[in-house]
Specification:
60 residues, 2 helices, 0% strand, mainly alpha
Amino acid sequence: MKNKCSEVSQRIEDHSSYEEWFRARVQEALDDPSPGIPHDEVMREMKAVIESKLSLHPAD
């Protein structure tokens, strides 16, 4: 029983640590003064990356 309680306690602690880390990353992003990248530009760049990777490994 003690072991099970410590497992639950560890999970809660891990979740709390992750929540704290995640919230800090989100806040950093919100506070970042640099200009954002337009969605269409990101999608164009990602499409080019995907297509270049696919050309390296053609489908069977």
